[in-house]
TrEMBL record:
Localization annotation: Cell membrane
UniProt lineage: Bacteria, Bacillati, Actinomycetota, Actinomycetes, Micromonosporales
Gene3D superfamilies named among the record's database cross-references: P-loop containing nucleotide triphosphate hydrolases
Protein's name in the database: ABC transporter
Lineage top rank: taxon: Bacteria
Length: 330
């Protein structure tokens, strides 16, 4: 688990797998999964398989059904309908057994501020019946893994947000889980703290730990996820690797044009035919094209003079906004 290559908790035993025809080797297997709250359908018949050692992401705007799906996977909210198997078990019957195999990193850190970092880990380990000697050993390994050894005897309350997040991730690994659930793992962190958390999660992924995460950060999804699904309105609207989704739902490059005028709409008609898709925003026009430089040359060839031009590679954020829209969802 440390920098010398020792494996982290969560990769020390063979995970359970569903039987053939019920998810195969998938640690998470869902078919037609539904979650309703009264008349409201939060999750509307989704199919998901997460394989051992995979980093899998759920993306979507607020209200898309991500959190409801994660709560069903975490066995804290029962499915309304459909098939769900976690490590080969049925959450409706085997919730406690499944929860013992999961590590959970909630969106809001819920550490005990009156305990030291070490005590937060060893106390949590007791919930899983882990002997004190083993708990102390795992706490030391995990604090080393998240680079908090020097703060082991410090209280939690004065820690920075990034340190608290790393400690919460360490706590999620105490029971050597088969699956680690991460709900918005870096929300609210500054860039340096985000990148350190990413590094720790990437090391877990390299060492075979299965990660399932939700995130609003598209660059985080591109960094961490082997595969992901985009959810909207309780349904899956796209799935695949980040690169495959970009290739399928966007173009190779995007040209951002800003014209020195109050209305970008005045220029939109003059750009017809320049890209596979044109998107007019209040402050700029986006051209989705295969060759950005050639498109810019054509813009100038049409005697148009933008105030600024940016050519960039298409990103997962372009895909996300194309599939789910730019309208804010509360």
């Amino acid at each position: 688990m440390n920098e010398t290559g020792q494996r982290p908790p969560g990769h020390d035993h063979t995970p359970l797998h569903g039987p053939t025809g019920d998810g195969g080797r998938a640690l998470i297997h869902a078919r037609g999964l539904v979650k309703r709250f009264g008349e409201f359908t939060a999750v509307d018949g989704i199919d998901v398989d997460v394989q051992p050692g995979e980093a899998f992401g759920f993306l979507g705007p607020n209200g898309a059904g991500k959190s409801s799906t994660m709560r069903m996977i975490g066995c804290v909210s029962p499915p309304t309908d459909g098939v769900l198997r976690i490590v080969g078990l049925d959450p409706r019957r085997d919730g406690p057994a499944i929860r013992a195999r999961l590590g959970v990193c909630p969106q809001q850190d819920n550490l005990d501020p009156e305990l030291t970092l070490r005590e937060n880990l060893t106390t949590y380990a007791r919930y899983f019946g882990i002997p004190r000697r083993v708990a102390r050993q795992r706490a030391a390994e995990l604090l080393d893994f998240v680079q908090l050894t020097e703060r082991a005897n410090s209280k939690v309350e004065p820690l920075s947000g990034g340190m608290k997040r790393r400690l919460t991730i360490a706590r999620a690994l105490v029971n050597e889980p088969d699956i680690v659930l991460l709900d918005e793992p870096t929300t609210g962190l500054d860039p340096q703290a985000r990148h350190l958390v990413w590094e720790r999660l990437f090391r877990l992924k390299q060492q075979g730990v299965t990660l399932v995460l939700t995130t609003h950060y598209m660059d985080e999804a591109e960094q961490l996820c082997d595969r992901l699904v985009v959810m909207d309105g309780g349904r899956i609207v796209a799935e695949g690797s980040p690169r495959a989704l970009i290739e399928r739902h966007s173009t190779r490059e995007v040209v951002e044009l800003r014209f020195a005028t109050e209305s970008q709409e005045d220029f939109a008609g003059k750009l017809d035919g320049l890209g596979e898709r044109i998107e007019v925003l209040p402050d700029r026009i986006l051209l989705y094209v295969a060759d950005g430089d050639a498109a810019v040359a054509e813009v100038h060839g049409r005697a148009l003079t933008p105030a600024s031009v940016l050519v960039r590679r298409s990103s997962l954020e372009d895909v996300f906004l194309h599939l789910t829209g730019r309208t804010l969802v509360d």
